[in-house]
User: Fold GH16 domain-containing protein from Ephemerocybe angulata.
Amino acid sequence: MVLSVTHLLTLSSLTLSALAGSYKLLKDIQGHDFLEESVFSFEAIPDPTQGRVNYVSRSVAEGLNLTFASKDTFILRADARSVLSSSGPGRKSVRLKSVQDYKQHVAVFDIRHMPVGCGTWPAVWEVGDNWPNNGEIDILEGVNDRGPNAATLHTSAGCTAPKGRPGQTGEQVQENCDAKVNGNVGCPVKMSDSKSYGPEFNAAGGGCAKVPAAVKNGAKNVDPSTWGTPQAYFPSTSCNLNKHFGPQNIIINLTFCGTWAGNVFSSVPSCKEKGSCVNYVNQNPHAFEDAFFDFAAIRTYVPGAPAAVPPQDTPDTTKTVETTSASTSTSTTDATATAETTPTANTTTADTTPTAGTTAATDTSAETTTKGTPAAETTTNVAATTKTAAATTAIPLT
Assistant:
């Protein structure tokens, strides 16, 4: 299996007052950092979305090579070798949760490759305690290779994202963010570029978009207010973010079937011909050889005075195809993000069965919650950049 070094940058930020101002680098997570116990915990828990998955511990994941790290690469994948018994546990996979939680912050997810395949349900998202009362922010998520990506909020009752509001380029699909209605679809904003999710995302090396050079190069300071109009924008005017969001933990996971991917499996022609989702996942391990994340880095930023460094570059226009731009603020005020429609719920509490097929961060099946903090805007910018280097990284299978 060979991966190119082309990237997707998913920029997620929860900030005060329209994300204005400088944010300083807090964590630059690369390679082996992902495996540090002080950075991520492995959640070997029953899948809240009732997926055909068996989330394993750190030691099991490393022993089976489901996680792999080198200097600038981190791989998270599912078992692609074992045929499963219908009466046994699901396909082995990994679910990570950040040890650090975040209030007002910007998060940059530098992703080269995302899991694909019928039955897959990958997600990168943020969530708070006591879901859905502290909110959920879906950043990159979807099922069964269905794009484009969508950014979504899941909250307690009383938070909406009205259609037609200014400040975003994506399409608002549902307005009510309440996780207890509409099958927990949330209030997704569908991105405008099909390259924002799935096979097209991978084929484009992560997609193409205008991204500030300072961001893609790992700047020590960033100013989200200079990034342009996001794909998704969730203002505090119709959602009290101080009330509905609290500190967020980053979650990265890959499940199969369940309340979203399983429920809409037969609605995707290329998947329907394979029979039932569960049987397909059980009997076809090699179908999931491309069901892996390849992360170059995750960088998180918090409010702070900028260091003595050159000013941030203007957006890089060498690539003119704009992908998804989503930013989410975790400081309880306005939130922006891009998302698609489709129920999702990767929460640590029981989900409701999704209703439509979309991709949460493609449809909506991720979780993010935030505790109260000063009101702020949430914006989620998902952008992909292509590096000029033509190097490739070989990922061992054993």
Observations:
- Residues 277-283 form the longest helix (7 residues).
- Residues 2-389 form a domain with the Jelly Rolls fold (CATH 2.60.120.200).
- DSSP finds seven helices and 24 strands in the chain.
